[in-house]
């Protein structure tokens, strides 16, 4: 398996300083699974190419996997594609052999390590699950020109068609450390396999190597899932951290708490009344495109889908687990094509400006604000009213005054342990009016649930319009 790196930066031989490997002295490295060799097929001022040749020893692989014999059948342990293709072995070799270059350090050419250089990487055999289209979706958003030649499954039997192996050239003006990091992360993603056990530390590794590019990559979700070998809980954690925010409390615990809150309010079937009230307001204002911010497990989305008025429905939440449940609840994967076009789920955080939230006629924020601590609430205000800026916002939150009417709720506690506050009617109204002044909205307030003469209704709702 061969990887070459070329530059036409002048003088091109500086590549040797950046890689910390002399163009004039071949070197070999012992790795647990074989050997890596570094040498330069060409080294002139105009153009220099470094080659990393990886020799994976299939017998050493089997030997190092004592106790795992039999996995995949005895023959497959010895006869497989691993020695011949770029895979996670290549990533390990890159990190070992070009460690300083990958971290962007260079003793002799520190300023060059910081610069974008004309670079070309060529991988002799790269397995691409998802084909050339997926290869392009990975590298093109990072600014690479991609050339790929597909290999036949068997050259002597052309009717068998193409294999999943490609010879790939990637070309860009970029920093060498960025190129190496992209290869390090994306080679195993394309291969969709890893030779070692993937645990918690892989999340850290992915986030570290993904810094500065992964969060904004359009394929970040698939990259993360594949990199972490489809281990859902790890992928969830990584995606949440990439969104710059973590689910407000660990997910399993959150579910128990949501159930506690639901039990507390169920005697009033408050949830049902809340949904009806929200849908009622949205129908009245005539909105067709609605975004539900902090949609959780998708209860409102489901109610909106039943109404034909709503032609574009987007649910957004920071919790990947909740979105997975929403996906199942809505039966998204089995929906008719027409229904499917109406609804979408989006993973993101309300702490960050997000272009994908703009252009909606109405936004709903149902039982979400009380989960946000003060700095988060402040960020959310701008994201909603200044950036997403829908015509109508329907927002609900508990009315703290009503809590004395829940017999089982000890005095002075919140309805849900993750609530950061619960507002009285006066507090909520003062907050809402302040947002109107700042962002040019007007607001009206509606009670949801049975109104108590003294303490008001259990849920309070604000309808903002501009
Ligand atoms: N609106 C839903 C869920 C309410 S629970 C319903 O009425 O059933 C609060 C939701 O807000 C949770 O799903 C939580 O994950 C989400 N949330 C909390 N902080 C968030 C943030 N910063 N960005 C996006 N969603 C957030």
TrEMBL record:
Keyword Metal-binding among record annotations: yes
GO molecular function, one term: metal ion binding
Pfam families registered for this protein in UniProt: Hen1_L, Methyltransf_12
EC id: 2.1.1.386
Keyword set, alphabetical order: Magnesium, Metal-binding, Methyltransferase, RNA-binding, RNA-mediated gene silencing, S-adenosyl-L-methionine, Transferase
Domain of life, source organism: Bacteria
Chain segments annotated as transmembrane: none
Keyword Transferase: yes
Gene Ontology BP annotations: regulatory ncRNA-mediated gene silencing; RNA methylation
Catalytic activity: small RNA 3'-end nucleotide + S-adenosyl-L-methionine = small RNA 3'-end 2'-O-methylnucleotide + S-adenosyl-L-homocysteine + H(+)
Protein name: Small RNA 2'-O-methyltransferase
Organism: Pyxidicoccus fallax
